[in-house]
Design a protein that fits this description.
Elements (H helix, E strand, L loop, with lengths): L1 H11 L8 H8 L3 H16 L2 H27 L5 H4 L17 H16 L1 H20 L5 H20 L1 H16 L7
Helix pairs in contact: 2-7, 3-4, 3-6, 3-7, 4-6, 4-8, 4-9, 6-7, 6-8, 7-8
């Protein structure tokens, strides 16, 4: 716990640099990174074959599963945000929910991992974006490092596990047949 607070304080000190503040505010908002990752996954789904379509569904299930697990954790364990416990230079609004684990990191890594399983080049960039997003949330003062690490692991592991589940393939095949029937998907 002490190491977590020390690393947090070191990283949070970067938020005091005026040149970084606009970049941090842009990165940390709850729309830019998640929407960018979702649109990348949608792009791969539109242009892709069966593998890409399967992984779009995997990502959706992984985000839902990650959120459910985090909700269960939060019902049983509450961790105060860093700005409530130690001196913090806060560049963000004050969230009131539990800091651990980071839901934002879980979503970002669930999506980025699915993209990586589909397309290694875009996936590597997506994982870098998810990492930057998570790190920015520590720098601006809303999470401890262990919060984003736990969220990242939850999101990535959920995606990797769900990608291996055979039932997802059956669900995807059914969804594709429905889309073909509705003429939203080209017939093969």
């Amino acid at each position: 716990m002490a190491l977590d607070k020390e690393v947090f304080s070191f990283l949070n000190s970067f938020s005091e640099l005026a040149v970084l503040q606009p970049v941090l505010r842009f990165l940390v908002n709850e729309y830019f990174v998640p929407v960018s990752l979702a649109l990348t996954l949608f792009y791969l789904w539109l242009l892709g074959e069966k593998k890409e379509k399967n992984l779009a569904l995997v990502a959706t299930l992984a985000v839902g599963g990650s959120n459910l697990l985090i909700k269960i954790i939060n019902l049983n364990y509450f961790r105060a945000r860093p700005f409530l416990e130690i001196p913090t230079h806060l560049l963000y609004y004050k969230p009131t929910d539990s800091s651990f684990p980071s839901n934002a990191s879980a979503v970002a890594f669930a999506l980025a991992t699915a993209i990586w399983l589909t397309n290694k080049r875009l996936g590597s960039l997506s994982l870098l974006l998810a990492l930057t997003y998570s790190l920015a949330r520590v720098i601006v003062g809303v999470h401890y490092p262990s919060d984003v690490l736990a969220g990242a692991l939850i999101g990535a592991v959920f995606t990797l596990v769900i990608a291996r589940v055979e039932a997802v393939n059956l669900l995807t095949k059914t969804l594709l047949k429905v889309l073909q029937f509705l003429r939203l998907e080209p017939l093969h």
